[in-house]
Amino acid sequence: MNPHRSREPDYLRTEHIGEEVIVENKKSQELSRGRIIDETRDTYLIQTKNGLKHFIKKDNNFIFINFKVKIDGSRLNKRPEDRIKIKRK
Q: Can you give the pTM of this predicted structure?
């Protein structure tokens, strides 16, 4: 194992504002697509084709287009400033 690699993948430590995402509701499987405009500990504010919409992280899966990865929103449930400060171990 490379000692300079973090246990958390890089996409969990990066800034998410500006990223294009597909949001999948865990219960209804409904999909929405848009760009992340703002982030809090519990939510993303996403510009969709129907306007701005808040998505609760823990209730949704997020497919990050640039990273080509689907992430359970509960893994993202941190303040953005805490998430990007995760140090490589």
A: 0.83
The answer to whether position 88 is within a domain reads no
The tokens of 25 are what? 């509701």
CA distance 66 to 34: 13
CA distance 56 to 29: 14
Is-contact 12 86, C-beta < 8 A? yes
Task: Write 54-57 long-range contacts (CB < 8 A, 24+).
Answer: 55/23
- pLDDT, one tens digit per residue, over 27-64 is 999 999 999 999 999 999 999 999 999 999 999 999 99
If one counts the domains in the chain, the total is: 1
To which H or E segment does residue 11 belong? helix 10-13
